[in-house]
Amino acid sequence: xxxxxYRNGELFAEELSIAEISKTVGTxxxxxxxxxxxxxxxxxxxxxxxLDLSVFYAIKASSNPAIxxxxxxxxxxxxxxxxxxxxxxxxxxxxxxxxxxxxVGKTRDEMAFALAQGILQFNVESPQxxxxxxxxxxxxxxxxxxxxxINPDVDAKTDARITTGKxxxxxxxxxxxxxxxxxxxxxxxxxxxxxxxxxxxSQLLDLEPYREAYKRLxxxxxxxxxxxxxxxxxxxxxxVGIAYDLGQAPDLNAYASIxxxxxxxxxxxxxxxxxxxxxxxxAIMVSEVIYTKDATTKSFAIIDAAMNxxxxxxxxxxxxxxxxxxxxxxxxxxRSYDFVGPVCESTDTxxxxxxxxxxxADDLVAFYSAGAYGAVMASEYNxxxxxxxxxxxxxxxxxxxxxxxxxxxxxxxxxxxxxx
Length: 420
Ligand code: LLP
Prior knowledge:
- By secondary structure, this protein is an alpha/beta fold.
- Helices cover 29% and strands 25% of the residues.
- The radius of gyration is 23 Å and the shape is globular.
- It binds ligand LLP.
- Ligand LLP is lined by residues 58, 60-61, 79, 102, 162, 164, 199, 202-203, 237-239, 273-277, 312, 316, 372-373.
């Protein structure tokens, strides 16, 4: 179902008018639909039914505890990459034993906190990290359950900036070294090797690279088991893409078939870490036009959201669909605008020569597919307070992260002692 819809020319999130919400919270803001998240989760779990495949939501996509809780209430665990994300997941009410800790540079402090909480698994990425985790666990008198994250050297055929499974990426342990490293580590008292993991990249629209990666994972897992390792599970990572052009998303049934043909026959419980595919289409970012400007070759719509609020276009040249909050009477796209923010950089551009109906100051516009890597990647660049987040369910909405006041923003700063 579509949860951002027009009713009599007005954009709604579920049963609520976006214009009404923006009167209360001001602009810019992110607006999530709870039903859209729940539906994405249901579609995934339906597709993977019967594969013994558990879902650990990669909270880096949107780590607001309210969003994590929506998915936790559906049955998802969490995939985290920092001590901060662990605290956000715990704040959402997730039990530690449904949390997996990934990431290439976990610190000893983060490891100790996660161990003390009793998390399900650490996905480790280097021999040095294994040694560090072992010593932290021994100091605490605990054993750390680990999965070795393997770098399968597969091209995910996605944007190079979000590719992670090639040999020259910083992620994972080379597949050819994995067994040797595992054998060397098997004497360590503070760790227990429970599984193997892969994650080859993000925003995959072509699912075939998974087939190669999962085949390599399955063959490595077989070698491990032949050598006497008791694997408890395999972690298949995340990365299934979404349709930023609002067209057809990758087919989850096709993904499930690849899992069924490659890793499922081993008979091991499976895990996955989707982020974007669960929340990406479940939010819009709403912004107000401040000015329009006709220059010699272009027209600009200067809006109150900027690259600090949604950085994906500036960082990856990502294209988010833009729609008006009040459809114009003619609804004809008779104008073309560059949508730009107030930040003092030319990369502060959301779209170039984008066909749109006539815009005027105070008009509201919505950026689609903003639920993943949107609000979480926001910053205070140019002295702009962090953008707030709102969750809608039916005809109710709730602010799930407030817009900080300027006082809030200034609170952590101080002049140096010699400047006072
Ligand atoms: N697991 C691991 C180990 C990851 O590194 C990631 C994403 C995921 C799971 C979740 O991947 P997803 O299902 O969301 O594709 N900021 C970029 C995306 C960075 C993805 C980083 N890792 C963007 O805005 O496109």
